[in-house]
Design brief:
The complex is a heterodimer of chains A (about 300) and B (about 325).
Chain A lengths: L1 H12 L2 H42 L9 E3 L4 E2 L1 H33 L2 H16 L2 H21 L8 H25 L3 H9 L4 H12 L1 H17 L2 H6 L6 E2 L11 H10 L1 H4 L5 H33 L1
Antiparallel strand pairs in A: 1-2, 1-3
Helix pairs in contact in A: 2-13, 3-6, 3-9, 4-6, 5-6, 6-9, 7-8, 9-13, 11-13
Chain B lengths: L7 H10 L1 H42 L2 H6 L12 H32 L4 H15 L2 H15 L1 H4 L8 H25 L3 H9 L4 H30 L2 H5 L15 H6 L5 H9 L4 H35 L1
Classes of the chains: A mainly alpha (about 300), B mainly alpha (about 325).
């Protein structure tokens, strides 16, 4: 019996050439899938390798100076981390209400026809390259909006405009993930709520929102991760090419981890030899990689919870 | 004591229609809509701002002149030729390297892999790669293609070549290609695969002749959108040495020389021009952005057009 069925399996599998060809294709596709692992390893090796050179050669007290001036051997990590958190914080202040508001409107209020127009329009915003938003922040948000509100306290290059620009960039991302999770809430929950006499607003806020909360939190975390990793808006709109002093003033030029890397990279031809400025790029990059990795892993947890429930 | 008269039906009617809450509900609905419209308003203002800023350039020069002129420090004659050409060649790298690898990778994950620890591991890695900030890919490119393989990618320019830039962008969009392709493959009904197996097709024949044609529109759209993403990226190119000052490869240079030579790209040029203090460059930057947005629009339009066309024929 067993002999017979294996005989059948062999016949059905076809001749040897056919089977060999199948195996070769399978290995080909497997090899392609393995490139992602290779890339991940390459990223970690390149980051850790150069960051290790940096950490083991540089005076550790230079990581805690008055500012970030890599070409003068002052690698104050505080300046960059605080700058990054300020910009990401401002970005989330913009992206959270706009993104969640848009998501809830599209998912709970908009009629299908309205949705068909508004959703693609929001997707256009998602497709705008970040350099364009950087230009917009520098030439419109700062002189057009911030100068009228704060007057001359605002510098031409400042962190606030950069943060708003990053926030605008994050809105479509937050909106689309949050909307997906709200639409995944079963219609029966809404019907039950209406059946008890709840209004549309109460249903949206007290039934749909809590039911979709894991997806909404995931949307915000992914948005935050994106905001932390955003480079070009900050590099263009917040100034500070050579370095910057530690500061909490968002109306003045400042530096984030990403913008500092971009600024350093433009001149890295000249700095390659001296003072480990080149290696500091990789150290900051490693920190950034770890920050976003942790955020992505957390958001993954939340997304999985949505999937399990419905 | 006088009994107070209560109009019971009216009270019930009111509480059912929720007169008091209704106003709050309306305000809430409007607040949500305003949040959405505000985002779209920003988009409109952005487009208007860029187009208005670019008008001085179009008043003096044709788009051909702007595209065809070389980079220059003089705003009156500066054009974007090297950046335009560079961006096009970079996209070729994405198409040649990222799209086939990404599609093949997704085919393995969706069509071959069973739900075991290895495939879950690869899936998790791909999702994490998609969330890595683009500038970190620039660091990878700097360490790998510029420093380690510099003698291959650009022996004359310390590895800061078009090849390095193109490969970096290809690596950057690979996870996006994989994820969108995997989605397209998942959408193919199982009946199509079962039908193919039923008439004795092997797994590869099933994929090649039955699954891929059905999934093609989705794969195509995803690939084109990945290219659009790569087209707008500046940060990784800054790290692998995209430049914005005048440069020229010799007149008798071969195509390989171009690939191994210095390069520029449109988003990198936006970054560098936007920060220049001269007034003339502001209009030039806006004009450059307009060209970029037109290219992006055409790319997206192509994606939608191809999807619609293919979807009808299948």
């Amino acid at each position: 019996m067993t002999v017979e069925s294996s005989e059948i399996a062999r016949t059905l599998g076809g001749d040897r050439r056919r089977q060999r060809r199948e195996i070769i294709w399978r290995l080909f596709f497997l090899g392609a899938a393995a490139t992602s692992i290779v890339i991940t390893i390459a990223i970690i090796l390149s980051l850790v390798g150069e960051a290790w050179v940096f950490i083991s050669n540089v005076d550790l007290s230079s990581l805690w100076e008055i500012g970030w001036f890599p070409r003068r051997g002052m690698f104050d990590i505080r300046t960059l981390v605080v700058g990054t958190l300020l910009v990401a914080g401002i970005a989330m202040l913009v992206a959270t209400p706009l993104g969640l508001g848009s998501a809830m409107y599209l998912s709970e209020y908009a009629r299908p026809r309205v949705r068909r127009i508004l959703k693609p329009a929001l997707e256009i915003l998602a497709g705008i390259p970040s350099v364009v938003l950087g230009y917009f922040a520098l030439t419109f948000i700062t002189p057009g909006v911030l100068k009228t509100i704060f007057g001359n306290e605002v510098a031409g290059f400042n962190l606030l405009a950069a943060g708003i620009g990053v926030g605008i960039l994050t809105v479509p991302l937050v909106a689309s993930i949050a909307e997906d999770s709200m639409r995944a809430v079963p219609i029966a929950l809404r019907e039950a709520s209406y059946g008890l006499g709840a209004s549309r607003m109460n249903t949206s806020v007290r039934v749909v929102f809590p039911a979709a909360i894991s997806g909404i939190v995931a949307a915000l975390i992914i948005g935050l991760s994106r905001a932390i990793g955003e480079t070009m808006v900050v590099a263009i709109a917040s100034g500070a090419t050579g370095g910057s002093l530690f500061s909490l003033n968002v109306l003045q030029p400042g530096q984030t981890m990403t913008a500092a890397m971009a600024a350093l990279a433009i001149g890295s031809d000249q700095v390659r030899g001296d003072d480990y400025a080149f290696q500091s790029l990789f150290f900051v990059g490693l920190l950034l990689f770890l920050f976003t990795l942790v955020l992505n892993v957390i958001s993954e947890r939340f997304v999985r919870r949505v999937r399990q429930r419905y | 004591m006088v009994a107070t008269y209560v109009d019971v039906p009216e009270v019930v009617r009111q509480s059912l229609s929720g007169k008091g809450r209704d106003r709050k509900g309306t305000i809430f609905a409007w607040a949500l809509l305003i949040g959405l419209l505000l985002s779209l308003l920003v988009l409109a203002v952005l487009l208007w701002d860029v187009i208005a800023d670019s008008l001085p350039v179009w008043a003096q020069r044709t788009i051909g002149n702007f595209l065809g002129s070389q980079l220059s420090a003089n705003p009156d004659v500066a054009g974007i030729w090297q950046a335009f050409y560079g961006s096009l060649l970079l996209m070729v790298f994405v198409v040649v390297f990222a799209v086939p690898t990404g599609v093949a990778s997704a085919i393995y994950l969706e069509e071959y892999a069973t739900d075991n620890r290895f495939s879950r591991f690869i899936n998790a890695i791909i999702r994490n790669l998609a969330g890595v900030p683009s500038i970190v890919y620039g660091l990878l490119g700097l360490a790998l293609f510029v420093k380690l393989l510099g003698s291959l990618t650009g022996p004359e320019v310390e590895g800061r070549s078009l090849i390095s830039g193109g490969l970096t962008l290809a690596v950057l969009v690979l996870p996006i290609v994989i994820i969108t392709t995997a989605e397209a493959l998942r959408a193919v009904p199982n009946a199509i695969r079962e039908g193919a197996y039923g008439v004795g097709a092997t797994r590869f024949q099933t994929i090649r002749h039955h699954v891929l044609p059905v999934a093609a529109p989705g794969i195509l759209t995803g690939s084109i959108l990945s290219i659009a993403r790569a087209f707008g990226e500046a940060a990784p190119l800054l790290l692998v040495g995209g430049i914005t000052t005048f440069f020229q490869s010799g007149a008798d240079s071969t195509f390989l020389d171009v690939l191994q030579g210095r390069f520029s790209a449109m988003p990198v040029l936006v970054f560098s021009w936007a920060r220049l203090p001269q007034e003339g460059f502001r209009a030039l930057t806006a004009a450059l952005i307009v060209v970029m947005l037109i290219v992006l629009f055409l790319v997206n339009f192509t994606a939608v057009y191809l999807r619609n066309r293919y979807e009808k024929s299948v």
